[in-house]
Specification:
The protein is of the alpha+beta class and about 90 residues long. The protein has one domain. It contains four helices and two strands; from the N terminus they run ααββαα. It has a two-stranded antiparallel sheet. A hairpin with a 2-residue loop joins strand 1 and strand 2. The longest helix is centred in the N-terminal third of the chain and has 20 residues. The radius of gyration is 20 Å and the shape is elongated.
């Protein structure tokens, strides 16, 4: 392989990596207000087995998003182990 071909491949690879990194997707799917999972309480899926709308009174910042909860107990459970309650793949 010629030297110029290797240089061209290296440059194109660098450009591809630069573009891929600069257009990163946020770790959590959020609304335009930055609310995760459209404001539903992630803990309620486990404790009540259904979606329940959270309240801004019980909110927590985690992984680049604001998470809402129905009560203080759910908020505390989430704070102790957010990975357990957060949706897989950031809710995408």
């Amino acid at each position: 392989m010629k030297y110029s071909t290797r240089v061209t491949i290296a440059i194109l690879t660098g450009i591809f990596l630069l573009v891929s990194c600069s257009s990163s997707i946020p770790p959590v799917n959020v609304t335009t207000e930055g609310i995760a999972i459209k404001g539903y309480d992630p803990v309620a899926y486990f404790t009540q087995g259904k979606p329940v709308q959270g309240k801004k009174t019980f909110s927590h910042q985690w992984d680049g998003a604001t998470w809402l909860f129905t009560n203080n107990m759910h908020l505390d459970l989430f704070k102790k182990d957010p990975v357990r309650y957060a949706p897989l793949y950031g809710g995408y």
